[in-house]
Amino acid sequence: MTTLDLVIVGGGQAGLATARTARTLGLRTLVLDASERAGGSWPGYYDSLTLFSPARFSSLPGLPFPGDPDRYPRRDEVVAYLDAYARHLDAEIRWGRRVVRVTRHDNGFVVTTDDGATAEARLVVAASGGFGTPHRPDLPGLDTFAGTVLHSSRYTTPHAFAGTRVVVVGGGNSAVQIATELAEVATVTIATRTPLRWQRQRVLGRDFHWWLDRTGLDTSPLGPKLVRGAVPVIDDGRYRAALRAGRPDHRPLFTHVDGDRLVWTDGARERVDVLILATGYRPGLAYLGVTGTPAHRGGVSTDVPGLGYVGLERQRSFASATLRGVGRDATHVLRTLVRQRRPLTARR
Fold it and tell me: Measured between alpha carbons, how far is residue 176 from residues 90, 181, 256 in Å?
């Protein structure tokens, strides 16, 4: 069996950006992805999802996002862009191959897929990102809720919820966007543990991301250290206006669930039909024997030599899990891994 320089687990935005960097470094690389096509998690997101950053700041290295650079692309545009990027890349990508196990072997790794095939590599980059496992919070009584419990990863359109009473749990961008959309057809509340945080989409006539880019905070390791806690909701004014109008309304998180009723902090009990958990994700790294966020420094494993990560949230900066950030992180991770494993480049 020929030993590769690198196996990349995941063919979404993180994996594709890593494959491009690997190619510039001359590494013999194989990308393995469980999906049947490019796009990573994007095809499964809700229909109306719109990027919060303009197209000019939403490109992977080497291929600008097409069309008006100041527009905010929708989900299907991102899927099409990632598909084009994969074809443009000219990399060896094997779709429909789910990695089930990565084990250390001699001076490298053996990567095993669900069909029993194996590949040996000196380096492995886990680029399955931070969105592999929908997070279900431990809310008192949630497991006994008599209504419908749905994670936002399974939400697609509002039509099925017309006329119902819905509570969306979570205070991030997706939670607010989903709740506002649902409020057109249902009675909706956003329930959060802490107050919502807001960020104006445009500041002094420029998109917020333009300022992040010009100041360097977007991709600076200092960014996450300067601003801790929940990510603010980026708003052009529509969402705050909707909440002021009570469509949806916003309340502190309920204390517990009792049958088909929620018990609010003031003691009021209310019958609810649907709970939507817009409570984020956790990395899907079971193939490494890892649960939760792995130990790493800037995406380079602190436990396993030759192992790296690309696409984790706040891996090196605010942008680490985004289209605009994974390219820089991939370059940092691969260059660091190659320096650690000098024999990879000795023949070049």
Answer: 38, 8, 22
Question: What's the chain's average pLDDT?
Answer: 91
Q: What percent of the chain is modeled with pLDDT above 70?
A: 95
Whether residue 46 contacts residue 155, with contact meaning beta carbons closer than 8 Å, is answered with: yes
| Confidence (pTM) | 0.90
pLDDT value of position 348 = 40
- pLDDT at position 345 over 50: no
Q: Is the peptide bond before 195 cis (omega within 30 degrees of 0)?
A: no
Q: How far apart are CA 9 and CA 124, in angstroms?
A: 8
Mean local confidence (pLDDT), 122-144: 91
Q: Which pLDDT score, from 0 to 100, does residue 221 have?
A: 72
Q: Which are the contacts of 165, defined by CB distance < 8 A and separation ≥ 6?
A: 186, 187, 270, 271, 272, 273, 274
Distance CA 84, CA 281 (A): 26
The CA-atom distances, in angstroms, between 35 and each of 69, 99, 153, 269, 310 are 29, 11, 16, 43, 18
Q: Are 172 and 280 in contact (CB under 8 A)?
A: yes
Which two three-digit tokens encode residue 319? 């942008």
